[in-house]
Amino acid sequence: MLVNETGTIFSVTKTTDSDGVADYSFVTESPVPAFSQSRHWGALAIDFTTDSEILDPQDRIWLTVAHGGLNVTYFVEEAPILGEQAIAIAGIALIVAIATTVLIRRRRSRRLREFSNIFGYAAELLAAGDEIRQAIYNCYEGLVSVLQRRGFLRRDFETVREFEIAIRQALPIRDEALVALDRVFEEARYSSHELGESERERAKAALADVLRAIDELRDIPDRVPEGREDEA
Predict the structure, then answer these.
(1) What are the beta bridge partners of residue 45?
(2) 71 forms bridges with which residues in the sheet?
């Protein structure tokens, strides 16, 4: 019998083998606290009684009344390094990380496609002989629209510098390609002289370089600024 100061907790009946030995153990299962938790069970001991006629009656009485019981040896199972709950949380975190990566890549792919379409259309207009200033200005307006819609540029922006910062955040390509593009925009928007074939060729070269840089960017890990791209 497994006992504490309040009385018998568990009892088990065993038959000894030919050597007079019987194995026994007391085990709890969740949610019952383990016997090693003394705050719950208190001091435990094991008492014996027997009705074996092999023993002298006086010995049977002594075993029941005066033996005093055995000290308890505890075997505590080691907790697993990673429990089921921890594994589940890690699995969910991994799924969220993968889903986030896929979402970011898809958003970046859509953004790059938008920019490519704008630059490509402007290059086609210039190649077809359309008016240079208007083709470049339309390209600029298209970029402003995309940057504002995707949260890179505020609606009421006032300076060229704001636009330059925004496009570099949204399109982190080679800076020399963006510098050449900046010059094309500045000349088309602020110059008063007539734009001729030399300006057309410079604009076409700048647009072609930006398109090449975008293609290079497709194989580079995302660098989406924090808080951007809330809109799919």
Answers:
(1) 3, 71
(2) 45
